[in-house]
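Protein folds are increasingly written down as discrete tokens. With that in mind, we are printing a sequence and the tokens encoding its fold.
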Amino acid sequence: MHDATDEAGRRARSWLPTRREVLGIGGLLLAGGGALSYHHWRKGHENGLRADVCIARAANYDAELAHVVADGLRELGIGREAVRGKQIVLKPNLVETAAGQPHINTSPQVVQAVIEAFRRLDARQVLVAEGQGHRRDSGLVLDESGMRDVLKETATPFVDLNHDEPVAVRNAGAWTSLKSLYLPKTVLAADWLVSLPKLKTHHWAGVTCAMKNLFGLMPGLVYGWPKNVLHHNGISNSILDINTTVRSALAIVDGIVGMEGDGPIMGSPKQVGCLIMGRNLPAVDATAVRVMGLNPYGVDYLSGASGRLGPIRHENITQLGEAIEAVRTRFSVLDVPHLRNILSA
């Protein structure tokens, strides 16, 4: 493992761009990178792609969340036959912790509910895995976030993806110049990878949700803290590469209390009161953005995913559970030029 990690790290460092390349990539990021103009995809037919997304009400974290999750899975047609005998890897968002700010991370209560729901469907094993992007001490993050208590109570193993053995796979997206992506062996061995993000704004990407949450799959031993190699290659394009190469089986967004403003860490809590669930991550994220009262066509990685990885047009998403209008809660975003498209109608 040590030799493989050293080799992965050496290769990752060789990918770091020159200063001129970084400046060029930064310009592409602000302009949308490899993602096509959102005006183009707004008028497109998305190659016939369709998806179901379920919005489930949950007023607070004291609700019977395991039942809420189970009902949502049922709405999506996910039952015991689909889950029995499968290894389930749950990927929450544990980017960082700060005293008195639980809205930074996926709630431990939501993670516990998902663990219980999958076990009731006879999953062979449920794991929680994360490669947080800021703090290197995973134990401290688990303790301060409250996730450690849930792991102990439910006897659920945790895998630190920052230090899990990296395996090189072909970059199936080719949105960046990276020819290979190094993925943890735990992720590659999963039958179902479940993205469990927090509903948040993001000061660079506009919104961070199910697709952006997969940044945390990428091991820090290869990509640095906070995933510097990926940032240098463009956030939106890296999101598209990861989501093309690693197909998540399901997303469950913690939208009970989200974050607005200067996300993903410095923002303010925003009460919404719902979970957003679906098997197609672009469709889930587009729905989440609409719940936030924002414009999904203005999110670069969503416009890039449209018609390729999934649908983002409202007409191509079958809405289950609650209507978007019933839970829509306007989120504030930073007033900076590269985020203004997500405010437009």
